[in-house]
Structures are given as C-alpha cells and as structure tokens.
C-alpha cells in the first residue's frame, strides 16, 4: 500500500512539474522487439512478428500479428511462433506458412508434440492447415510459384543405414567428433496441397539428399530450380557457406554458384527471376591480397553465373535490402551511426539517397505490386523501435506508425545523446563514438564515465533504440553515468580500410582508440578521471579484458563472454576461421601475435575489480575463457565475481530473467566500485 502511494505521488509530482520520470530497470526490460515483418504480395496485409519477455514462464512470447492495411485492424494469429524460420506468404497472399514453438504450445493442443508440423494459415477463412512432416525440424522453407506446393529442408545423415547401425553397435554412445560432423546433410522435400470447398489434403515427396546443411532456400520459376545456401557446424573454412542451384527437372544436377571467402546470407529473387541477390561480408581478394570487407550487396546472374556488386559508390555498410517490383532495389545503408534508405535501379546506376529521419531503418518490406505500400522498422536515440508504413518512398518523414508497444519509453526522461569524435594521435585516424548524458545533465562536466564497448568487431553502436541486456547505455545513463560507446577500429560504417585496420593488432589497436577517447573526455573536462569504468560483451569483452591489463585507471570492469587466451579460444570457438583471421595466422604460424595480444600473459598488471558473465552453452566464446579470467584474478587478490547463466548460449536469449539479472548485477558492481571509493591498490 505504501509503495502504491509513493508511485502515485511521483506521478502527480511529475505531472505538476512537467517533467518525465526516469527509466527503471524493470521498465527497461519490458521492451518489445520486432524480429520480422512482411507485406503480402498484393499489398493488402502486413505480417508483424513481435517478441516480448514472458516473465512468469521464464521465456519469450513470440507472436505473429496480421494487420489489415485498409481497415487498420490488427489480428493475432499465434503467441507461440517459432523463431527458427520467418513466416512466408504464398504467391497469391492467401496462405501464410510458419512453424510453432512446441515448448510454448499448451498441453491441451490437439496436435502431437512428438512430430513437427508446418502450419498454413488461410487469410480467407482464418483456418489452420497443419502439415505433419515427421520428427525432423525444418531448416528452410520456400513456396513454389503457386499456392499448391512448397519445398522444405530437414536434417539428414549421409551415412548409409547399415553403417549407422554398425556405428551404434560398435561405438555405443561414444562420439567420433569430426567423423560425425562430416556426415551432416540435408533432405529436400516437396509438399503438394490439394484443396476443395470442404477439405484440404497434402502429399509429401523426397526430392534429394545433399551432403551439407541448408540454411536458406529459394524457388526460381525460371528453368524450375531451387537455389540453396550451404552451411556446416564444422567451420574449418569459409567455403562451407556457398550458394548452389538444383535443377528440379534433373535433380542429379547440383551446381555450385559461388566460391569465395565470404559469408553469404539473405537470398532474394530479382523481379525478372533471373538474378539472385544476397548480402555478404568476410574477406575478398583484391590485387592478389585478401582484404576484409564490410557487408556488401551482390547480384548473381542465373543465366551465366556472373556475380556483380551493387552500390559500389557506397563506402559504408549494407545493413539490409529489398528487391523492388520494377527491377531496382531498396538498400539500408549504414554510414557512421546512421542507417538510411537508398535506392538503386541497376548495378550501373548511381545510388539515390532518400531523406528520412535521423536514426536507424531496419527490415524494409514491399509487396509485389508497383507503387504499393512500404513497411519498415525505425528507431533513434529518442524514439524506441516501432513498425511504420508509407504509401511511397517520397513519404518517409510522414510515415504512419502502426505499433505502440514501446510507447512507455517516450513517456520517460531519456538521456540526451550526441556523437563525439577524437583522433588516434599515432596515425591521425578519426574515431567516433556516442555519448549518452544522464537525464538533466546534457553538456555537464566532471561526470562519472562508463565505456560500453560493442561486440563484433563489425556491428557498430548506432543511432537506434533497442532496450536489452546488450544495448543498455540508456539505462546506465539513467542511473547517473555518462556513457561512451566507441566505434573503434574494425567497426562497420566507416569504410573497408577502417574495418581492415583491426586485423593483426586485434586488441592493441582498437584498445588505443578507446583509451584516447577516454583521454579526450577527461581533457575536455566532461569525464571525472577518478570515476571511470569499462565494460563490454563478446568482442567488447575481449577488449575489456585487454584494457584492464594495459591501464589501472578504471575503478570497475564488466566482462561479458570475453576471451583471455587466444590459442585455447581458437581451439574451442565454433567458427574456427575467426581468430586466425584476426591474428594473421594459426597459433603455430604467428605465436608471437597470440602471446602479445592475449590478456592472460599480462594479468599481473590488473588492479580493476571485475564482474564476469558467461552463458553455460556458449560455443562462440567458450565459457572456459571466463573461468580462466576469474581464477587468475582470484589468485591475484582482485575483487571478482563470475555469473554463469544455465542453458544459455552466446545470445542469452532463452530466459529473459538472465539478461535482466546480468544488467542488475553489473549496475550493482558499478555502484560498489565505479565511484572510486574502493581501496584497491592502483599502483
């Protein structure tokens, strides 16, 4: 009762003074994200996927909404949508194909939880058609050129059945690691759908088994082909991710269409059905040398196999795209901290910039109709992420907002934010970061500073608003901290050369970028030199672990999923090409690079109290790295705490309580040590 009265008095006070209340921890984590959205082919309806924490069930609620553009009404299809595949419209727009998360389906549901289903939702009748596909979960899905058949992929072992049975007898439960992985494959199936006035029925056919996993699938009406994206859980070389085509008239013909060191993704067909467009990042050969590149957009000509790059005159990062009905393409291009909308009619045409709001545009979606509506997701420092709709590209700044799930954030006193630049005096490189000021203290001086370092190293901190455990600068600022998010060397959005400069000096060079930014904030009188803290997750954790060995100026450190010893990190990471590309070779080829840049060999220099978190099942940065750091600091007498989140991988996306507790405990650590009152020896 007393708490309710306090809250009411606070609201009355804020209302009478015209001020907004500050964000709280609980409010910050009640944020809705939008993992996907898709306009129907006829442009009459919009599918919106939303993801929201379900605190009582220790999970996330993934919902699929059906929005009628004419009536402006939103209808719920399901609250148990699977995240493994995006919902897909049929060619006519009369059906929607999707999967359900079995763990979210009530036990009273009439469909078996033992088998997997592809669900078809009828836009006309609002009825569901469940298609039983057996026990294997679909890896990819695509419609044919009509509503009467679709293709899907499941996991398949490439071992002959007799060999598999012999393995079970001889080896029992022993895993032959690389051998078992080499037998990974996929089965491609077709489902034919027969409908009449009363009932619908389906028939299933096996099309082909292929000796690799498939993560994306496209049907190409031109010459009746399937275009596939390959993958493998054994990531020894980048050539495990390539694009193939399968001739459906002669399924023995499987053709490889790409051969490179790039990570391709987001396959889409051009309007003429003769080109496959895709995003790719990684390493590209130039003048006989492999250089790392930001994400780019390419077009593959299915008639002659030629691959052509689009947006060659754009120096930033291509964050997303969508093909246009007239043959052109919409491009979401990131320059610095801004991601804006561009168009290009063909690879030979220049890129056209369309003036929008400052901030970040995501997941643009179109119908197949010319001059049809355009949907997108938008956010900025001041405006939380929501879904928008506009009639045409010239109406970006007057687009209509369709959702209001994150309205609460607009009713809070959010931190004021600005870009901040400094130079690395060793090579005169300009480095940019984002400064979040505590509410009511914009442009104030002598503020306590927390440096929050993004992961990647590619994905940069941006002018956007997503409230979660990874991007929590607004919450830290609301707790009284000046927050610097540095876009250090290696970040996307500042040109390929800037991105390339992280390699061979993967910690020391970006580390210097960050420390020089702190120096300038102190020299400008903005940051209090006696109240400094640092933290980051993933690559941000890598850099946090490195920087506490290089300086004793930080009173507190927050290390999330960070490595400390890169030989063992290479041996346990799932993508085994990542660390050698950073260090310039394998451990036996450039041992000095690994020795020089591994924090474990400099750990005796650390005096900073360090809070560490890791996911129990993290395969991107093995949890052993966090245990090594904790043990080392404990032996050195440095205050340290390690939190291990059960059943979580690198993304911490299983239980929303884990992300919330991560930030809650990190804030407590900052409160305890970050203000400089601790008695830890600094020299």
UniProtKB/TrEMBL annotation:
Specify the Peptidase S9 prolyl oligopeptidase catalytic domain's residue ranges. 475-673
Enumerate the InterPro entries for this protein: 6-blade_b-propeller_TolB-like, AB_hydrolase_fold, Peptidase_S9_cat
Q: Which Pfam families match?
A: Peptidase_S9
Q: Does the keyword Hydrolase apply?
A: yes
Q: Biological process (GO) annotations?
A: proteolysis
Q: Which SUPFAM superfamilies match?
A: alpha/beta-Hydrolases, DPP6 N-terminal domain-like
Q: Name one GO molecular function term.
A: serine-type endopeptidase activity
The signal peptide here is 1-19
Does Secreted appear among the keywords? Answer: no
Q: Which domain of life is it from?
A: Eukaryota
The UniProt keywords, alphabetically, are: Hydrolase, Signal
**UniProt xrefs under PANTHER family:** DIPEPTIDYL PEPTIDASE FAMILY MEMBER 6 (PTHR42776:SF27), SERINE PEPTIDASE S9 FAMILY MEMBER (PTHR42776)
Name the chain's protein.
Peptidase S9 prolyl oligopeptidase catalytic domain-containing protein
Supply the source organism for this entry. Rotaria magnacalcarata
Q: What is the lineage of its organism?
A: Eukaryota, Metazoa, Spiralia, Gnathifera, Rotifera
């Amino acid at each position: 009762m007393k708490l309710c009265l306090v809250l009411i008095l606070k609201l009355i006070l804020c209302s009478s003074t015209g001020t907004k209340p500050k964000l709280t921890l609980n409010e910050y984590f009640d944020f809705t994200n939008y993992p996907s959205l898709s306009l129907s082919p006829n442009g009459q309806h919009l599918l919106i996927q939303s993801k929201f924490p379900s605190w009582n069930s220790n999970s996330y609620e993934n919902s699929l909404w059906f929005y009628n553009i004419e009536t402006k009404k939103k209808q719920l299809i399901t609250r148990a949508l699977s995240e493994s595949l995006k919902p897909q419209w049929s060619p006519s727009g009369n059906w929607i194909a999707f999967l359900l998360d079995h763990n979210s389906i009530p036990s009273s549901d009439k469909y078996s939880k033992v088998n997997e289903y592809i669900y078809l939702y009828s836009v006309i009748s609002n009825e569901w058609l469940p298609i039983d596909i057996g026990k294997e979960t679909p890896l990819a899905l695509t419609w044919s050129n009509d509503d009467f058949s679709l293709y899907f992929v499941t996991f398949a072992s490439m071992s002959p059945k007799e060999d598999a049975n012999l393995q079970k007898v001889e080896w029992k439960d022993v895993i032959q690691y690389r051998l078992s992985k080499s037998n990974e494959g996929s089965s491609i199936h077709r489902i034919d759908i027969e409908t009449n006035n009363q009932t619908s029925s389906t028939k299933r056919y096996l099309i082909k088994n292929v000796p690799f996993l498939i993560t994306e699938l496209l049907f190409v009406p031109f010459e009746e082909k399937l275009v596939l994206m390959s993958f493998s859980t054994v990531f020894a070389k980048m050539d495990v991710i390539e694009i193939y085509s399968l001739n459906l008239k002669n399924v023995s013909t499987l053709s490889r269409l790409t051969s490179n060191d790039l990570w391709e993704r987001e396959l889409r067909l051009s309007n003429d059905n003769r080109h496959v467009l895709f995003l790719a990042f990684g390493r590209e050969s130039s003048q006989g040398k492999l250089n790392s590149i930001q994400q780019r957009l390419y077009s593959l000509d299915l008639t002659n196999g030629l691959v052509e790059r689009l947006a060659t005159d754009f120096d930033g990062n291509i964050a997303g795209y969508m093909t246009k009905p007239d043959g052109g393409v919409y491009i979401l291009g990131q320059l610095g901290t801004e991601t804006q909308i561009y168009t290009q009619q063909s690879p030979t045409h220049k890129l056209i910039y369309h003036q929008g709001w400052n901030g970040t545009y995501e997941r643009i979606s179109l119908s197949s109709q010319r001059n049809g509506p355009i949907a997108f997701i938008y956010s900025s420092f001041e405006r939380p992420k929501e879904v928008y709709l506009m009639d045409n590209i010239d109406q970006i700044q007057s687009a209509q907002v369709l959702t209001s799930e994150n309205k609460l954030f607009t009713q809070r006193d959010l931190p004021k934010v600005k870009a901040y630049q400094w130079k690395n005096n060793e090579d005169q490189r300009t480095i940019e970061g984002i400064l979040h000021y505590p509410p009511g203290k914009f442009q104030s001086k002598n503020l306590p500073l927390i440096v929050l370092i993004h992961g990647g190293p590619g994905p940069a901190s941006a002018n956007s608003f997503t409230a979660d455990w990874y991007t929590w600068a607004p919450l830290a600022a609301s707790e009284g901290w000046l927050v610097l998010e540095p876009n250090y060397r290696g970040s996307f959005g500042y040109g390929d050369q800037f991105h390339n400069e992280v390699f061979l000096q993967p910690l020391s060079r970006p580390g210097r970028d960050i420390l020089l930014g702190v120096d300038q904030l102190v020299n400008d009188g903005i940051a209090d030199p006696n109240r400094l803290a640092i933290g980051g997750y993933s690559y941000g954790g890598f850099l946090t672990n490195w920087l506490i060995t290089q300086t004793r100026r930080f009173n507190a450190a927050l290390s999330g999923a960070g490595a400390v010893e890169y030989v063992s990190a290479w041996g346990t990471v799932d993508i085994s090409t990542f660390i050698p590309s950073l260090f310039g070779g394998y451990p036996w080829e450039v041992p000095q690079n690994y020795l020089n840049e591994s924090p474990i060999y400099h750990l005796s220099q650390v005096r900073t109290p360090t809070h560490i978190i890791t996911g129990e099942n993290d395969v991107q940065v093995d949890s052993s790295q966090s245990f090594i750091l904790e043990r080392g600091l404990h032996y050195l007498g440095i205050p340290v705490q390690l939190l291990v989140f059960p059943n979580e991988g690198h993304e911490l996306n299983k239980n929303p309580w884990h992300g919330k507790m991560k930030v809650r405990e990190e804030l407590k650590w900052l409160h305890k040590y970050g203000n400089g009152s601790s008695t830890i020896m600094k020299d």
